[in-house]
Amino acid sequence: MFTHVMVGTNDPDRARAFYDAVFGALGVPGMQAPNGALWYGDPEAREAMFAVVTPRNEQPACHANGGTIGFKARSAAQVDAWHAAGIASGGSDEGPPGPRDWGMPLHVAYLRDPDGNKLCALFLTGEPGETS
Amino acid sequence: MFTHVFLGSNDIEKSRQFYDATMSVLGFQNVAPPEAGRLIYAGPTGTFIVAPPYNGEAATVSNGHTLGFSAADDATVDAWHAAGLAAGGIDEGAPGPRSAAPNNARGAYLRDPDGNKVCAFNMGH
């Protein structure tokens, strides 16, 4: 469905420290494009990518109210590691890791990135995943 | 990579008009009942949800945020853009090749009725 999701930052170095940590917990590689944009994901995998940029209109980046981006985790432990890595790297807690039941059993955690963008990591409990 | 993406709406009926029109071009239908007060477009590789913010405050737009949707071919990019313009969206970049995209891929940009920036790209997959 998605090709990419892009969020804005006012401090690319701070954003890189945060996103390198949280994507590291999910096992997702990152790279910095020549224009400074941070891209996460495997471009050869033909999957959607995530990007962090300074806004092209040169106005300050700001977060939305009502916007959330959900990232796929492969285990409940990976959700926990994602949340811990984010807290340790400049993010703020927006909901600690734990089970939820939204019509299907989930293990979910929420963070704000250093610019205030709302994120979550989600593992669909019972899906084939890692055992760790 | 993504399980879902939420965008905020201050007028779900305007959002419904816009996203029913644009998402159907891409092959997705809203699966939420009308009384849900939200829109849920579900696909095998992710779910897209449009809803009023949970905190009861007005939905606001992020500067720097863009949500990209996958189009199966170039004609679908064009049809997506036209459908959005006809359904309450605002042009944010006409359909055409984008030099910043891999392989000069064809893309188009819109603002939804709440001002959220969205785009469609034919990435060849």
Describe this structure in words.
The complex is a heterodimer of chains A (132) and B (125). By secondary structure, chain A is of the alpha/beta class. Chain A has a four-stranded mixed β-sheet with strand order 1-4-3-2, with helices on one face. A four-stranded mixed β-sheet of chain A has the order 5-8-7-6, covered by helices on one side. In chain A, β3 and β4 form a beta hairpin. The relative contact order of chain A is 0.23. With 125 residues, chain B is α/β, with parallel strands linked by helices. Chain B has one domain: 2,3-Dihydroxybiphenyl 1,2-Dioxygenase, domain 1 (Roll), CATH 3.10.180.10. Chain B has two helices and seven strands; from the N terminus they run βαβββαβββ. In chain B, β5 and β6 form a beta hairpin. The chains are: A alpha/beta (132), B alpha/beta (125). At the A-B interface, β1, β4 and β5 of A face β1, β3, β4 and β7 of B.
Labels describing this entry:
heterodimer; A: 132 residues; alpha/beta; 2,3-Dihydroxybiphenyl 1,2-Dioxygenase, domain 1; four-stranded mixed sheet; 8 strands; B: 125 residues; three-stranded mixed sheet
Helix-strand layout with pairing:
The complex is a heterodimer of chains A (about 130) and B (about 120).
Chain A: E1 2-8, H1 12-26, E2 30-32, E3 38-40, E4 49-53, E5 68-72, H2 76-87, E6 92-101, E7 105-112, E8 118-124
Parallel strand pairs in A: 1-4, 5-8
Antiparallel strand pairs in A: 2-3, 3-4, 6-7, 7-8
Helix pairs in contact in A: 1-2
Chain B: E1 2-8, H1 12-26, E2 39-43, E3 46-51, E4 66-70, H2 74-85, E5 90-97, E6 106-111, E7 117-122
Parallel strand pairs in B: 1-3, 4-7
Antiparallel strand pairs in B: 2-3, 5-6, 6-7
